[in-house]
Amino acid sequence: MSLQFDSFVLAASTADLADAADPVAREHADAIEFRMDLADEPLAALEDYDGEVPILATNRAEWEGGEASDDGRLEALAEATTVDGVEAIDVELESILADEADELLETARDVSIVASAHDFEGTPPRNELVRTLTEAGKHADVAKVAVTAESKADTLALLSATEQLTAHGDAVATMAMGDVGRHTRAVAPVYGSKIGYAPVDPDDATAPGQYDLETLAGLIGSLD
Ligand SMILES: O=C1C[C@@](O)(C(=O)O)C[C@@H](O)[C@@H]1O
Fold first, then answer.
1. What is the pTM of this model?
2. At residue 1, does pLDDT exceed 90?
3. Ligand 1 midpoint to CA 212 (Å)
4. Which superkingdom, per the lineage (predicted)?
5. Domains of the chain, with CATH numbers?
């Protein structure tokens, strides 16, 4: 089965699949983003998973803000796609463009693909955001960029790019990390962003500036 992104998907981000059974996740999460790179025995945890909420598996590389070394990283992700509950995977656009993910993408034909690019330093100009999202969309079901907004203008560039791609019919997911762009997590879905990420417990954030799941669900719900 593959996770569909034709409407907004709120993902509970976690290194611990036990979070899927948490009442807040049960109420609000459409998916669990399992951060394999932050987990101790990710493949064993996936094998044991018997929850009903579909999993979006991420094995974030060290060079993209995660904790997975490149040794066996994409192979572990490929293995994750053979587990029943895994319905989508996140693959770094850079790995795809370097032709390192060809085998993974071949193995992962039955699950949805999110191609992602992160900027922990700042926000590229609007035209570059559009270019990156367009490129990512050629290789995936959802094109994702997470940037670090340093100004309100940065957040507007991100939202504007989100709107443009969405109006064009592309599925994109966008968010600004950090404090300045925090509100984009609530607002980007209004402009078409298809995925939101939030930890069940605010202390377990997987990126700077995340709201906890209950708060983000409430904010997004109130803007519906
Ligand atoms: O890429 C993303 C988005 C994210 O970085 C965020 O800003 O919410 C959180 C990560 O867990 C996820 O893989």
1. 0.97
2. no
3. 13
4. Archaea
5. 9-223 (3.20.20.70)
